[in-house]
Design goal:
The chain is α+β, with helices and mostly antiparallel strands. It contains five helices and ten strands; from the N terminus they run E-H-H-H-E-E-E-E-H-E-E-E-E-E-H. The strands form three sheets. The chain has a four-stranded mixed β-sheet with strand order 3-7-6-5, with no helix packed on it.
């Protein structure tokens, strides 16, 4: 959902206004060099990244379709596929190849299961029955290593959905609707922390 920056400013100000320490915060913002709205805007993208990174995958739906071509180090449709990820990539929400029985389990390259994917035994690493996608860095950039396929040249991407890094564009932020309250709360916390002011009971009784 697209949220106008003016709405985010309004809701963040309301939340800050519920803090017993808001008087000193607002006074501090009345200087010639810093205004509260400017400070809030400077925190929006950071707060959005943090909230999206911590959220459950289901709360990030629907996400954005990922359009890319697979690379096959062992031959097309044989073994691991490499799926390049876009520059604005934040999280992979769902990926399934055409010969997989289900979407992949998505893990980071520092998780123990990631090491299993190097096994020469097909039953240990990911396979069409229990596919695994490992998010990692290669010299060419961030990729998803997809384990594994054995159906040959007909294998294609059936579905790939990702969450891009949230950015302010045209005075608005595109962000999941169910996470909006968490977003405003995080912006308010980051803003209050700039002045070392505690923010208590966010959204209580709202």
């Amino acid at each position: 959902m697209t949220f106008p920056i003016q709405r985010i400013l309004r809701d963040t100000r309301i939340l800050l206004g519920r803090n017993a320490c808001d008087r000193s915060l607002i006074l501090a913002c009345d200087t010639d060099t810093l205004h509260l709205d400017q400070l809030i805007i400077s925190k929006i993208e950071r707060a959005a990244r943090e909230v999206a990174s911590e959220a459950q995958t289901v709360d990030l739906a629907p996400g954005v379709p990922l359009r890319t071509a697979l690379e096959w180090p062992e031959g097309v449709g044989r073994g691991m596929a490499i799926m390049p990820l876009p520059d604005d990539f934040l999280r992979l929400l769902r990926v399934r190849l055409s010969d997989w029985r289900r979407p992949a389990r998505i893990i980071a390259d520092n998780e123990p299961m990631a090491r299993w994917q190097a096994s020469r035994f097909h039953g240990i690493r990911g396979n069409p029955e229990r596919p695994v996608a490992v998010i990692t860095m290669q010299p060419t950039g961030r990729v998803a290593e997809l384990y594994a396929s054995y159906a040959g040249s007909q294998v294609r991407i059936h579905e790939a959905i990702y969450m891009p890094v949230p950015r302010i564009r045209e005075h608005a932020l595109d962000f999941p609707e169910r996470l909006y309250e968490q977003l405003v709360e995080r912006i308010a916390v980051l803003t209050a922390n700039t002045f070392q002011q505690p923010l208590l009971s966010p959204f209580q009784d709202l």
